[in-house]
């Protein structure tokens, strides 16, 4: 989990570094716990070793002290003193022997014996045994040498007769201040060793020669803790302290000095094969009072090490848990921080968004206002455009009127001239009293005026300003009007007009405007048919679903390719200046488009031009004046 968490946030090298750091911290904790545990265990062990030393030294002391006064007491025995004065008195010797034997049994000493001042044993407790000391000379033994010069002596050594280790307590026996002999009590300390080994204690006592004289383990006994200098070795040979026993070295390696009287050592039992904590001991040494011996106890460090190892493991586990906890805590804090940062970022983004929305709204509002202003402006422009267009159409119409005016003037001239002649004649006939002729003339005048009125009426009707929207244009009627307006030109140009119409077609269109379109188209045809023999205009109309179709086909010169391309463009004209404005077709097309229809032009396959008008149809007939 720790790994997973770390891997999530770090690169591989980072993770490795992190792991190394964690391993270092864990190892540090473990080492610390190990050392702390070991040193506290060592302190405890030192304490317990001290207690053991107290106990062992006390028991050893009491074991020896029991016999301490015994040699001196022997000097109080008159028999003993007597024997020393008369060593050859066999009866006395026997008596003393018995006494000593009895004393030995009572005190559980190993042996008690009396030596004369030459070191010869003159009485002994073991007088009855085959290897009795009796007669032996131990003058070379230190316990004799020291005792004879007045010092009470204590000596540990191996017996020369029985090779039995023992502790020798000796004291000079004097008579009137003159040393006459030495009393020796030999005691065995094996009982003590037996108790130690039973208690599984690791304890030994080394003498001044650093030779182990008492030990809980048999293999330690008479082992040398150091190498003896040659002169000491010689001395030992002389005193036969260890009865010429070969002293083995006891290999105890000092690992470190724990305190002034405690040290950590390594001792490998003969079976031990490798160095391990099992071979480490705390060795605590103390000099024994009243002797130059050293009492040592060894406390195995194995439990201390195993405790230290388990504490180190525990510390490692705890530190891993602690680190995991810390990492988790850190992770949580980081997440929380990230979360807060994310929330803040979100809030910031939200505020920015809100601000943007506000800005956009303001922009939109202003755009909307601008748009509305533009719409109003457009509407105004459109109205203006419509107005302008209407004016343009009207202007176009007036241009047509202008063009028509010459022929209309010509058309009116004829009846006017006739009117003039007729009215003059009528006056004459009235003067002559020829009333019937005058009345006939007046009738003709009336007809002429009516015809003139019709012409001007048609022109006025054509010229009148029409409304752009709506209307009902009866096709035949509208065509009649248009043809009537150009009638003079038709006749003048000898143009044959063929009308193949479907009756009663009504277009949804202002009739006046349609008439303007038709006049435009017909005058264009007349222009194209100018001076053409057999000039002809064929007009056809029909119903196409919801529309009406009107075609004007002349057999004039038709359109050039260029004309066809630009026909409906304003100011496009092929006519000489002053004749054509180039607006006729443009206006016609826009009138029809406004009415929801269309105007198209093409060259007819049989020659000439053909214009096709399409307009929304109205059902039923309508009337148009
Ligand atoms: P204008 O009549 O003033 O020239 P129009 O827009 O009415 O302007 O006509 C544009 C041009 O179209 C004419 O100049 C002419 O060249 C051509 N045109 C129009 N009608 C016809 C037709 N029936 N036959 C041949 N050409 C035509």
Word description of this protein:
The protein is an alpha+beta fold. Among the domains are: 70-188, Beta-Lactamase (2-Layer Sandwich), CATH 3.30.450.20; 467-616, Heat Shock Protein 90 (2-Layer Sandwich), CATH 3.30.565. It has helices at 2-9, 12-68, 70-74, 78-85, 90-107, 142-148, 190-198, 230-239, 302-432, 435-463, 475-485, 487-493, 511-528, 561-566, 584-594, and strands at 111-116, 121-124, 153-158, 165-175, 178-187, 202-206, 212-215, 223-224, 248-249, 252-259, 262-267, 280-287, 294-300, 472-474, 496-500, 506-508, 536-544, 547-554, 598-603, 609-618. The strands form 4 sheets. Strands 14, 15, 16, 17, 18, 19 and 20 form a 7-stranded mixed sheet that branches. A 6-stranded antiparallel sheet has the order 7-6-13-12-11-10. Strand 6 (202-206) and strand 7 form a beta hairpin. Helix 9 (302-432) crosses helix 15, helix 11 (475-485) crosses helix 13 and helix 13 (511-528) packs antiparallel against helix 15. The longest helix has 131 residues, at 302-432. The protein is rod-shaped and about 240 Å long. It starts with a helix and ends in a 7-residue tail after the last strand. Residues 621-625 have low confidence and may be disordered. Adenosine-5'-diphosphate binds at residues 520, 524-525, 528, 554, 556-559, 563, 567, 572-575, 580-586, 609.
